[in-house]
C-alpha cells in the first residue's frame, strides 16, 4: 500500500489537486503504524477501504470522469484524509490495543467512515450512470456512422450515375464539336473549290456527256463492257484507244464508259476526270481547255488532289495570275502520284475534234504529246481512255504505246447494236407499225447494211 501510494501520489495529484495531501497523510499513517506491534491487523479494515479507493482512482486517471463524478471523488478524498488524520493521531498516542479501542469507540471516526461508505456507494451509482451514458453515446455514434456510411454508399451510387451521365455528355459534346469542325471544313473546302474553279474557268464537259447519254440506246454496247479488252483496261494501268468512223457512236460509247467508272468512284474505290473535245465549241478544242477541266474534277473528288491544286493557286497570288501549261501538267502528275493507292481514270472523247490546222505544235499535237508523256511515265494507278477517228497522226501516236484498242467499224457487236437500234425504231414508229412484217424486216436489213458501222 505504501508503494502504491508513492506511485500514484504525483500522477493523481495532476488530475485531482487534493490527492497530494491525502497520499502524504497515508505515508505518515503507514510510517507511524509500522512501529506499533500488531498494527497491521488492527488497521486492515481501514487500509482495505483505502486500497480499493486507490485502484478506482487509478482508473479515473486513465478515463477522465465527469464533473459530477469528480465532485464525489474529491469528497471521498476529504473523508479519507479525515479518517487518516484521526487514525494517525491515535496510533502515535498509544498502542494498537488502545488504538483499536478508541477507534471503535470514537463517534467522529465512525461518522467519517459512514460518510466514506455513502460516498463510495454514490461513486458506484455515478460510475454506472456514466457507463450507461457512454454506451448510449457509443450507440448513437455507431448509428450515426452507419447512417453516414449509407449516405456515402448512396452518394457513391449517385456519383457513379453522374459520372456515367457525364461520360455520355462528354462523348456527345465531342461528337458535336467534331461535326461542327467537319461542317466548317466542308464550308472552307467548298469555298476553295469555287475559288479554284473561278481561277481556272474550265469548260463544262457534262454538257456533252448528257447529250451523249441521251442518245444511248438501252441494251447496246454490252459486247464492249463484257469483253476482255475493256476489263483488262479497268484492272491494270494502261491506255485504251477506241476508234471508229464519224457517227459510229464513239461519244455515246464514251459516255457509257464514264457511267461505268462513276459507279466505282461513288463506292470510293477510284477517282475519275473526263473531257469531250467539240469542234462546235472553241472552249473545248485544245490542251489549255483540257488541263483545267481534269484538274478541277480531280480536286473536287479528292482532298489530297485539292491540296495540290491549292498550292499552285497560292503560288500564283491566290488566283491573281494564270499558270502556264507546264505548271498545270506538273500539277496533274503530282495528283496522279499521290500515294493513296486508288486508281485514277482519265477519259477523253473525240480527240480528232481538237484543232490540227494551226500552231507549232498544233493543239492536237500538244494533246497527243501529253498522252504519250503520261503513258511513258508508267504510273501504276493511271488508266487513260481516248476515243477518236482513226486519223493518221492519231494512229501513229497512239498505236505504239498501247495494245488495247477497239475498232468500232470491225466489231460484230457494233453491227448487232445497229440492227437492234434500227429494229426498235421501225417497231416504235406509228406509221411503220401498220406495215407487213416482211417489209419491216427488209427495212431493218437494208439500213443496217448501208449504215456501214455508223
From TrEMBL:
<dbReference type="InterPro" id="IPR031350">
    <property type="entry name" value="Goodbye_dom"/>
</dbReference>
<dbReference type="Pfam" id="PF24883">
    <property type="entry name" value="NPHP3_N"/>
</dbReference>
<dbReference type="Pfam" id="PF17109">
    <property type="entry name" value="Goodbye"/>
</dbReference>
<protein>
    <recommendedName>
        <fullName>NACHT domain-containing protein</fullName>
    </recommendedName>
</protein>
<keyword id="KW-0677">Repeat</keyword>
<dbReference type="InterPro" id="IPR056884">
    <property type="entry name" value="NPHP3-like_N"/>
</dbReference>
<dbReference type="InterPro" id="IPR027417">
    <property type="entry name" value="P-loop_NTPase"/>
</dbReference>
<feature type="domain" description="Fungal STAND N-terminal Goodbye">
    <location>
        <begin position="4"/>
        <end position="60"/>
    </location>
</feature>
<feature type="domain" description="Nephrocystin 3-like N-terminal">
    <location>
        <begin position="219"/>
        <end position="389"/>
    </location>
</feature>
Amino acid at each position: 500500500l505504501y508503494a502504491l501510494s508513492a506511485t500514484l501520489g504525483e500522477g493523481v495529484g495532476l488530475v485531482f489537486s487534493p490527492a497530494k495531501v491525502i497520499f502524504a497523510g497515508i505515508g505518515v499513517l503507514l510510517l507511524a503504524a509500522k512501529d506499533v506491534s500488531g498494527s497491521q491487523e488492527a488497521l486492515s479494515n481501514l487500509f482495505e477501504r483505502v486500497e480499493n479507493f486507490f485502484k478506482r482512482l487509478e482508473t479515473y486517471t486513465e478515463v477522465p470522469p465527469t464533473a459530477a463524478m469528480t465532485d464525489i471523488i474529491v469528497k471521498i478524498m476529504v473523508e479519507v484524509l479525515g479518517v487518516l488524520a484521526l487514525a494517525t493521531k491515535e496510533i502515535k498516542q498509544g498502542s494498537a490495543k488502545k488504538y483499536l479501542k478508541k477507534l471503535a469507540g470514537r463517534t467522529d471516526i465512525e461518522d467519517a467512515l459512514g460518510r466514506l461508505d455513502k460516498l463510495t456507494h454514490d461513486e458506484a451509482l455515478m460510475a454506472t450512470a456514466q457507463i450507461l451514458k457512454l454506451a448510449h453515446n457509443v450507440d448513437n455514434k455507431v448509428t450515426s456512422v452507419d447512417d453516414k456510411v449509407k449516405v456515402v454508399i448512396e452518394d457513391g451510387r449517385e456519383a457513379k450515375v453522374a459520372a456515367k451521365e457525364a461520360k455520355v455528355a462528354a462523348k456527345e459534346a465531342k461528337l458535336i464539336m467534331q461535326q461542327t469542325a467537319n461542317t466548317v471544313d466542308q464550308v472552307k473546302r467548298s469555298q476553295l473549290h469555287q475559288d479554284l474553279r473561278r481561277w481556272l474557268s474550265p469548260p463544262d464537259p457534262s454538257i456533252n456527256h448528257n447529250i451523249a447519254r441521251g442518245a444511248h440506246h438501252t441494251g447496246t454496247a454490252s459486247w464492249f463492257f463484257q469483253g476482255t479488252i475493256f476489263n483488262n483496261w479497268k484492272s491494270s494501268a494502261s491506255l485504251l484507244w477506241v476508234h471508229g468512223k464519224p457517227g459510229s457512236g464513239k461519244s455515246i460509247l464514251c459516255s457509257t464508259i464514264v457511267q461505268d467508272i462513276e459507279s466505282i468512284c461513288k463506292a470510293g474505290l477510284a477517282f475519275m476526270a473526263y473531257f469531250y473535245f467539240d469542234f462546235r465549241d472553241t472552249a473545248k478544242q485544245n490542251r489549255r481547255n483540257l488541263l483545267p477541266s481534269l484538274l478541277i474534277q480531280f480536286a473536287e473528288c479528292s482532298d489530297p488532289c485539292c491540296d495540290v491544286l491549292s498550292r499552285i493557286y497560292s503560288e500564283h497570288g491566290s488566283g491573281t495570275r494564270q499558270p502556264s501549261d507546264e505548271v498545270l501538267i506538273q500539277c496533274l502528275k503530282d495528283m496522279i502520284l499521290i500515294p493513296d493507292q486508288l486508281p485514277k481514270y482519265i477519259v477523253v472523247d473525240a480527240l480528232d475534234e481538237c484543232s490540227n490546222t494551226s500552231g507549232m505544235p498544233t493543239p492536237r499535237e500538244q494533246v497527243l504529246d501529253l498522252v504519250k508523256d503520261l503513258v511513258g511515265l508508267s504510273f501504276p494507278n493511271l488508266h487513260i481512255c481516248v476515243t477518236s477517228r482513226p486519223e493518221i497522226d492519231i494512229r501513229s501516236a497512239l498505236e505504239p504505246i498501247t495494245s488495247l484498242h477497239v475498232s468500232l467499224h470491225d466489231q460484230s457487236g457494233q453491227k448487232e447494236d445497229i440492227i437492234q437500234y434500227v429494229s426498235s425504231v421501225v417497231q416504235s414508229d406509228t406509221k411503220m407499225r401498220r406495215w407487213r412484217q416482211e417489209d419491216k424486216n427488209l427495212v431493218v436489213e437494208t439500213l443496217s447494211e448501208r449504215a456501214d458501222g455508223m
